[in-house]
Amino acid sequence: MSLLCQRVLTTGFLITGLTIAGCSSNDKAKPPQPPVPSPSPSVSTPPPHYSFEQVKAQLLKPSDIGAGWKLYNVPEAQAVNDIRSCSLTVIKLPGAPKSILTQFGAPENLTKGASYATYVAVYPDEVAATKGFNVLHEAVTKCSKKHLVPSKTLSGKRYTLAHRDSWALTEDSVAEWTHLRGTEKNDYSASLSKLGVFYLMHDYALRGNVIFTSTYWQRLDPGQSSKTIEKRATEVLTKQLEKLG
After folding, report:
1. Phi and psi dihedrals of 46, rounded to 5?
2. Confidence label for 81 from pLDDT (cuts 50, 70 and 90)
3. Any idea which fold 52-150+161-244 has?
4. pTM for the whole thing?
5. Burial class of residue 61, CB neighbours in 10 A (0-12, 13-18, 19+)
6. In whole angstroms, how large is the CA radius of gyration of the chain?
């Protein structure tokens, strides 16, 4: 017999016994008890307001990411409201936030090592940052889950070869930041390279008046799992967002 059935039968026996016995005239009525005060509603803590200087000072250094990592100079022209998205596209944020763009590389990052880039937008207030994050959210939710990317010339002397592209989006929170992650896989022909698979972890986070975005990427053999890259990208992101507070 289940615990629930036992409780129901026991309750029934008690009620039956009380009904047969009735109430004694010697029973004294209990005085009314004072009402239990209802708990006061909790007051939510407003999100912090970050200054540009505060954010800049709290960004990770190469040594915070791993041994042998280096910081690379990024042309100022590339640091103008451009956020990386799926299939080599970028997202333009609204407004005129102050921005910081950084890029790091692990040893052998041009062959089989990892790379990491961040873009941080500091808005004057939370309302403007939330509006910017909504634009970002709308853009990444429109990314195609699977499609073929043709060969094409990018800006400057850069170009990309044809490859199969896949995209998966998740939403959660990290260190009290609203968080989106786009997991992207670029699968190139094995005739082009033994390391023909790129995994890219695109992270987008919002708290207060700041939008923090980053991309962690690495080349792998076709048969290698992306779990190690996903885990490492999460560790670096969490460390950064906890440091920002």
Report:
1. -65, 150
2. low
3. Protein Transport Mog1p; Chain A (3.40.1000)
4. 0.78
5. exposed
6. 28
